[in-house]
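Quick note —
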Amino acid sequence: VDGFHVVNAGRLYLGEPFLVPATPLGIMAMLEEYSVELKGKDAVVIGRSEIVGKPMAMLLLAQHATVTICHSRTVDLASHTRRADVLVAAVGREGLVTRDMVKPGATVVDVAMNRNAEGKLVGDVDAAVFDVAGLMTPVPGGVGPMTIAMLLRNTLTAAQHRRSQVAVGGS
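Predicted structure written out below.
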């Protein structure tokens, strides 16, 4: 139900998703809830993991966004992030994205959970970005609860699929 199996990854890549990784799925649900337009928009995903970065890029592409994938070794990261209408940060580096790196009015999704020197949970995006962004998820309390909700949704989807397979004589 985590969506990480090679079959689920392949289906997502082919545009036929079944069980999608919960964090990117939750992000897409939030973007939909807040009517964030994706079609034709520039989306930048910072992070290339199989858990968040790559599936996030696939889901954004499926909604006709123009997607750039960056990572911790991207040269001049700010040149990419400053043009993003939608920015998803999922690297795990406290304060990586600063206010000067964000296009005014952009939607910023902070996926990371880091502990700072004081032991406080913080994200990849500096809190000062709230002043620049049109919409921004908090850390903690933003993406995390959506991840849990989507994992439960995937569990229900898998159970319903399994039930329908058994009902028609499958295994």
